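User: I'm writing a short methods note and want a consistent example. For DNA (cytosine-5-)-methyltransferase, I'll paste the sequence; you return only the structure tokens, no commentary, since I'll be parsing the reply automatically.
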Amino acid sequence: MTVLDLFAGPGGWSHALSVLGVRDIGLEWDEWACKTRVRAGQLTLRTDVALYPVWPWVGRTRGLIASPPCQAWSMAGKRLGLVDQPLVHQAVTDLAAGRDTREQLLAACRDPRSLLAAEPMRYLHALNTVGEPEWVAMEEVPDVLPLWRQYAAVLRRWGFSVWTGILNAADYGVPQTRRRAILIASRVRTAQPPEPTHAQVAEPESLFGPGRARWVSMAEALGWGATDRPVPTVCAGGGPGGGPEPFPSGSRKTLSDARDRGTWTPRSGGGVPRSRRAGGWKSQHGIPDPACTAGAHRWSWSLRSNNQAKATVRPLSEPAGTLFFGHRANECTWIAEPAGHGLGEQEECPVVPEPIRITAHEAGLLQTFPGDYPWAGNKGQQFSQIGNAVPPLLAAHLLAPHLGVPLGPDDFTLAA
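Assistant:
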């Protein structure tokens, strides 16, 4: 018996299963996600989930996992999946009855990826003929919850206990307030969400149950210590789309020094780094665009989730917002402000560091992948994989009850 992972991506579910002592077989189409999986030692079939036959899995599938591509539904995209939603619901209804109307429905979809959310039902219908699988776990962006409820109604008719709802990954130790629609189903146990292990404010143990730790901050996950230091890593060659380095040539040694001191020491001689964005730091933060050379200052660093006007900005002392990647508008950047409340009258004006693009290594850690996870591809391909992946720590909490394996507090090491 095996665990079948549809739309397996770079291995979020698979890494969680490996921590729990189980291997799955992942079906994935993306070339670079498959290469990452192979590097990580995960069993992988590079195939189109919508075209792969179901019969090889009948009679041998214990668990089914599915995280259909979210681009059609995500707030980071055009969200044409919402327009196509009636067609996707119709596809689920038809597939649950053994009717394959995907070709006709696909022709009517505004986004061809929308219909991929119905694919798990094709597998579930075939497996149900032999009383499989024993359990199901599915994950998607929150707007897919109505579709998961439709799946739940079908699975209950087939004898499953089912729970659907929205979970916040931060409640399970993920340093990111990533909200996802979850479906959990089982033939052998009551389906229910795992008990949260963390809360926005720490909760002490009481007569009513165990306590919860405070949400894991970005600083903790990245092993950076104090919330206002160190200076984030400088990534040569810019972000996912390439481009110039985020600091002038010769700045790296200064940044390396600042990592240890928690300070920013500008270069002398007019080489002051300035923001390349329209308006610069002055308009965004009310900080003067310096024409002077300042002494060392401490900086408080935050993560800006994208380049858009209403981007989420979180200090290092908090979890990140949801990490979206895939195009330049969704680049995450570290931004800095002077620590404390204003400058003394005699203190020279600070030189504000320019925003620094997050690295794939840092983004992977914030998704709870190991620091040495073997990402394949260029930076853009790596960021795309990371943004679309299920956080392995959240996946482990969802899967552990089905497998009868306890998840220990030290099973995941975030900082690396």
